[in-house]
UniProtKB/TrEMBL annotation:
Enzyme class, first EC level, given as a word: hydrolase
Taxonomic path: Archaea, Methanobacteriati, Methanobacteriota, Stenosarchaea group, Halobacteria
Protein name: Tetrahedral aminopeptidase
The encoding gene: frvX
Positions of the catalytic residues: E208
Family to which the UniProt record says this protein belongs: Belongs to the peptidase M42 family.
One example of a Gene Ontology biological process annotation: proteolysis
Pfam families: Peptidase_M42 (PF05343)
Record-linked PANTHER family: AMINOPEPTIDASE (PTHR32481), AMINOPEPTIDASE YPDE-RELATED (PTHR32481:SF0)
Highest taxon of source: Archaea
Keyword field: Aminopeptidase, Hydrolase, Metal-binding, Protease
Annotated residues for binding of Zn(2+) 2: D178, E209, H319
Cofactor note as given: Binds 2 divalent metal cations per subunit.
UniProt-annotated stretches for the region Disordered: 109-134
Cofactors that this protein relies on: a divalent metal cation
Length: 352
């Protein structure tokens, strides 16, 4: 039987099911603005599409909390003579999981349903069956004749995976848990923040999946004193992996990032995150991610040296349509971020 989360699951579901690939986060941005506006003093969108919502504090010290809005997807590159679509990836798909998936093609005249087909195995020879799939081999079938497809679809149209969000046991699973669960966490923390001692910028960023581009620009524009990024992280606690390969485990709490391939978080920041978690009895674990980067790095390479930290939500099956996060880890992450922001006075010295 599925659990009943202590947070607003309907909003998380709405965020996860809303479509928004890198550079085209419009629909998600609309939801974020709608949800944040009542809880902040100012909200704006920059030239790249980052949403910056500001809660003014009693000091000039400022903290940025960043979570990216974009999800991995595709852009149409060509319509062939038979009406099948060729695409270019926007973000890092594992091509092994793409066959036999439903998709939505977003065109100027509206959304179209489609499928990424897969030939029946008994029609393939041994070489074809053993061939390693490649993303560039993806073709999308809209179930329409070629002339109709030509009229309705153009190069540059966008494609997202078509998958709903569900509670499966104690897990929330869906196609864009990465990183809408962190956007949800950001919104929940903003709702809980009252009269902060420091100014807090809650930033929903763009184009993370194609190179942390929104965060890089935001780091220059805001020039914060401290930056905290939110993202999902690998949980390989499933059959086929040794325990040392897990990175994180579902149900063990919020993951305090120590490093990934793009950043080494500031020791004084992750130590204080740990202190807050221990003082408040918030379940937590540590994340050492051998590959993959997050918005955290965007604030460590822009506008000079900045202390940075990150909180991650352990997630199984990342970059697939069944990404899964534990409800208790989501609750722990919301609690840790809220407690950390509530205790920030601007007087902590994070310099080394």
């Amino acid at each position: 039987m599925a659990v009943e989360p202590d947070f607003e699951y309907d909003l998380l579901k709405r965020l996860s099911e809303t479509c928004g690939v890198p550079g085209y986060e419009d629909r998600v941005r609309e939801v974020v603005r709608e949800e944040l506006t009542p809880h902040v003093d100012e909200i704006r969108t920059d030239a790249m599409g980052n949403v910056i919502s500001t809660l003014e504090g009693d000091s000039d010290y400022s903290v940025v909390v960043a979570a990216h809005m974009d999800e991995i997807g595709f852009m149409v590159t060509h319509v062939d003579d038979d009406g099948f679509l060729a695409v270019d990836p926007l973000g890092g798909f594992d091509p092994r999981v793409l066959k036999a998936q439903r998709v939505t093609v977003h065109t100027q005249s509206g959304d179209l349903s489609g499928v990424i087909g897969s030939p029946p195995p008994h029609t393939l020879d041994e070489e074809e069956r053993e061939r390693t799939p490649k993303t560039e081999d993806v073709r999308i079938d809209l179930g329409l004749d070629a002339e109709d497809v030509e009229e309705r679809v153009s190069p540059g149209d966008l494609v997202t995976m078509d998958q709903g969000t569900e509670i499966v046991g104690e897990h929330v699973t869906g196609k864009a848990i990465d990183n809408r669960v962190s956007v949800f966490t950001l919104i929940e923390a903003a709702r809980r923040s009252e009269s902060p001692a420091v100014t807090v910028h809650f930033a929903a960023t763009v184009q993370e999946e194609v190179g942390l581009r929104g965060a890089h620009a935001l780091g220059v524009d805001l020039d914060p004193d401290l930056a905290i990024a939110l993202d999902t992280t690998v949980a390989n606690d499933v059959p086929g992996f040794e325990k040392r390969e897990y990175v994180t485990e579902l149900g063990e709490g919020a993951a305090i990032k120590l490093k990934d391939s793009s950043v080494i978080t500031s020791p004084k920041v992750h130590r204080r995150l740990t202190e807050v978690a221990e003082e408040r009895g918030i379940s937590h674990q540590f994340e050492v991610l051998p590959a993959g980067g997050t918005d955290t790095a965007g604030f460590q390479t822009s506008a000079g040296a900045k202390p940075v930290g990150a909180i991650s939500i352990p997630t199984r099956y990342l970059h697939t349509v069944t990404e899964s996060a534990h409800v208790e880890d989501i609750e722990a992450t919301i609690g840790l971020l809220s407690a950390f922001l509530g205790s920030e006075t601007g007087e902590f010295d994070y310099r080394l």
